[in-house]
Specification:
The protein is mainly α. It has helices at about 10-25, 30-40, 45-50, 55-70, 95-115; strands at about 45, 70-75, 85-90. The chain has a single domain, classed as Orthogonal Bundle (Arc Repressor Mutant, subunit A), CATH 1.10.10. Helix content is about 60%, strand content about 10%. The chain is globular and about 60 Å long.
Length: about 120
């Protein structure tokens, strides 16, 4: 059963706090993109860097933050040279609906932007 939101000042304040909390975790240019890439399965550091077109320094920082927030798992493989694989945690699956909705909106926005030019 879907929970109905009441539009009271209190509910609106709580909603803004919840959105701010979410954006603190997944906001920025890279985090949702990295999560989207990892939805396809585990990736090594260099694969992520190439696919996301992100510098290793920034990627390392973003992955550390995603790991600290419980969205990404980091596994050091027993290989020579050492490789590191990243995968999504079960907790990150709660973002799939958000990503699907954002993707749909992005397609609509792109079509609109193209039609304006």
């Amino acid at each position: 059963m879907e929970k109905t939101m009441q539009h009271t000042d209190q509910a609106c304040r709580q909603g803004r706090i919840a959105i701010k909390d979410a954006l603190d975790v997944v906001g920025g240019k890279w985090k949702l993109l990295l999560i989207t890439i990892l939805l396809g399965g585990k990736k090594r550091f260099r694969e992520l860097s190439r696919e996301a077109e992100i510098s290793p320094k920034i990627l390392s920082k973003e992955l550390q933050e995603l790991e600290m927030d419980g969205l990404v798992d980091r596994k050091v493989c027993d290989t020579r040279p050492v490789t590191v694989e990243y995968s999504l945690t079960p907790y990150s699956q709660g973002l799939v609906e958000v990503l699907t909705t954002l993707e749909k909106w992005g397609h609509t926005h792109r079509e609109r932007a193209i039609s304006l030019f």
